[in-house]
Inverse folding.
């Protein structure tokens, strides 16, 4: 035992045993209890590890978040451990309801694997960070009660600690060392020390050799080293320097250019630029920009001038088709029907299309030795009056609400619409004609499901009717 140790026992094995006893932290104890299958309960502001030891819920561990590099509290890790299979969104709601710090989604899997012993270590555990050891249950309850009493009386815990340090005549380092020694005497042993041997804590406190080891201990972290950072910001400083240099150069350039523009050169003497002569010319109606051409001949001279060229406009004719996938003719199969005379069902053509839904389709019609283009669309929401002037035909589906946003329909209904735009209704031989189509002035084109070779005939009929209509109503387009 520790009482039988002599000065010669201060070897590496003894130092390691003492360090194991005093270095037990809440994270390590939570991991050991979880691996051993022992339950860790929460009572008020304390986490209870069996009957002998406890830790305040607000104690920070040396497991740091991946995104913010800030340590998680022991309460946050314990709460996640109670809900390993709960959906992350529901876990966040439950933690917020109980006012418990949450664990980020990026750290969830690694924390659970580390606490359950599935991995021996984690890169997010900072072994160099100082964490307070776990206290005995009685000492932890007393510390929480004292903290609650200090909060109720309005006394700040930090101010009270500094006041006690000043009264004892010690500086910050001495106070920290004494606090570490007091906490070390109340620490929970890890491996090799059973939970029932609580008497060993009092032995460590009374043993002079243990105190000597603690006095010789090198403290890796203190309040000064905690403020030091190992990160380098050379790239940030270089970027700021470049931005500053560019800003200074632009200011210098703007100042020099403004100075050049504001400096007015001295006006040289000009015998023809006399204010008195200008005033006299204005009095008698004399124009300095005059010409030998008389006022009567001026309009003729202007008429002989070359006329200004008007901006070139697009005169490609437009055809509108329904947008529903259940319609006979849509953007997916209109090109094959009008160019080759073959009708592929819309569902089959849409499934075979791998480039996504088209915004429009260009149909190339070969006529004699020339090829004319027709633009086919199914969305009229972005069309302008110039676009509507170029609409020559439309495929109707049957319901009248298809023309709800069409200006030609709003001005005079279907009668006005089909007098300007030629309508076509394509249907299968086993399909019933829509009731409203019977009363419209549209061309009906019948196609057969069992005789696809006849589709070419209906396609030719479409172009024949359209040519007659465009020749009478749209001779200004590229037809």
């Amino acid at each position: 035992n520790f009482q039988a140790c002599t000065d010669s026992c201060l070897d590496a094995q003894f130092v390691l045993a003492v360090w194991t006893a005093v270095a037990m932290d809440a994270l390590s104890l939570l991991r050991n209890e979880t691996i051993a299958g022992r339950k860790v309960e929460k009572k008020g502001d304390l986490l209870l590890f069996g009957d002998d030891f406890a830790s305040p819920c607000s104690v920070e561990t040396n497991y740091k978040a991946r995104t913010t590099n800030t340590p998680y509290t022991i309460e946050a890790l314990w709460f996640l451990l109670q809900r390993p299979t709960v959906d992350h969104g529901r876990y966040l709601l439950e933690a917020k309801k109980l006012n418990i710090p949450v664990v980020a989604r990026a750290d969830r899997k690694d924390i659970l694997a580390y606490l359950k012993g599935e991995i021996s270590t984690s890169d997010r555990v900072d072994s160099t960070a100082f964490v307070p050891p776990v206290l005995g249950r009685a000492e932890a309850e007393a510390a929480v009660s004292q903290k609650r009493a200090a909060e109720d009386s309005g006394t700040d815990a930090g101010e009270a600690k500094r006041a006690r340090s000043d009264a004892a005549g010690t500086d910050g380092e001495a106070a920290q060392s004494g606090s570490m020694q007091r906490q070390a005497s109340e620490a929970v042993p890890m491996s090799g020390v059973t939970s029932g041997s609580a008497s060993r804590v009092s032995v460590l406190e009374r043993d002079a050799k243990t105190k000597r080891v603690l006095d010789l201990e090198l403290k890796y972290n203190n309040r000064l080293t905690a403020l030091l950072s190992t990160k380098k910001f050379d790239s940030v400083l270089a970027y700021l320097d470049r931005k500053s240099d560019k800003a200074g150069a632009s200011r210098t350039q703007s100042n020099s250019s403004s100075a050049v523009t504001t400096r007015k050169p001295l006006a040289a003497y000009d015998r023809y630029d006399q204010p008195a002569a200008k005033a006299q010319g204005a009095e008698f109606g004399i124009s300095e920009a005059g010409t030998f051409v008389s006022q009567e001949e001026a309009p003729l001279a202007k008429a002989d001038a070359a006329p200004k060229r008007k901006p070139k406009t697009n005169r490609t004719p437009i055809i509108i088709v329904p947008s529903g996938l259940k319609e006979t003719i849509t953007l997916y199969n209109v090109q094959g029907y009008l160019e080759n005379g073959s009708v592929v069902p819309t569902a089959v053509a849409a499934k075979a299309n791998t480039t996504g839904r088209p915004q429009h389709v260009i149909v190339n019609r070969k006529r004699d030795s020339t090829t004319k283009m027709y633009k086919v669309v199914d969305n009229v929401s972005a069309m302008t009056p110039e676009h509507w002037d170029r609409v020559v035909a439309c495929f109707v589906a049957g319901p009248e609400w298809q023309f709800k946003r069409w200006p030609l329909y709003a001005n005079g209904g279907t009668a006005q619409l089909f007098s300007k735009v030629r309508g076509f209704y394509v249907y299968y031989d086993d399909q019933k004609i829509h009731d409203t189509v019977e009363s419209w002035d549209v061309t009906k084109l019948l196609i057969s499901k069992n005789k696809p070779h006849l589709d070419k005939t209906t396609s030719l009929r479409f172009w024949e009717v359209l040519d007659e209509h465009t020749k009478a109503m749209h001779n200004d387009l590229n037809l």
